[in-house]
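Human:
Care to share another protein and its fold?

Assistant:
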Amino acid sequence: MSLPKTLAEDVARNLVMVARLIDEDPEQAYAYSRIALRLASRVAAVREAAGFAAYATQKYAEALAEFRAAKRMTGSVELWPVMADCERGLGRPERAMAMAGEPEVQKLDKAGQVEMRLVAAGARRDMGQIDAAIVTLQSSELASNAVHPWTARLRYAYADALLAAGREDEAREWFAKTVEADKDGSTDASDRLAELDGVEFVDALGEDDDADEAVDVDADADADADADADDEGSADKA
């Protein structure tokens, strides 16, 4: 639907703030999304933004309601994976698994299908089915050497599942593959890999500060000792 120009501008400003803040300050992004929602609740983009803001603040029931509204308005299935993940957040992994088998999944693009696979694997883990989660993640996308925006997250989920299953050597291999694909550092795969290799990071700056502090303490102690000696010398002369 179209909005009057002034109202549209107000809504747009709030949506911009949602997008700008959702990663660094999700609570503030959520507040802006509520303003946009009050101004234009019949606009699909507003309902979607409100859903993501609620999702970022772990308000999963609210997020799911907004995503459902956006889906009804647009007829698009692109929000299907995040809707399923909301079901996980609400403690209903079995519903997420059921959604993974619905026809909507076949309508998703490749990125959406990978996202759905990640959600389904997470649901399996929620239910304590770690081996099933590993199998769920095994796919042509995982086996491919090509790097896509979702490659690092897929490899990371697989490595983490392997580690949870006690398959440490395989987990190490896949954390290493994750690092290769994770050019922007979106995961902590390098830290996980270092942990598996027994590497400990030392805060060199912190050590320098400690050393400087120790020197200062020693200097103060020497100064106090000299002062005491001077006082004793003065007393002897007296």
Summary: Residues 204-237 form the longest helix (34 residues). The CA atoms of residues 156 and 220 lie 52 Å apart. The radius of gyration is 28 Å.
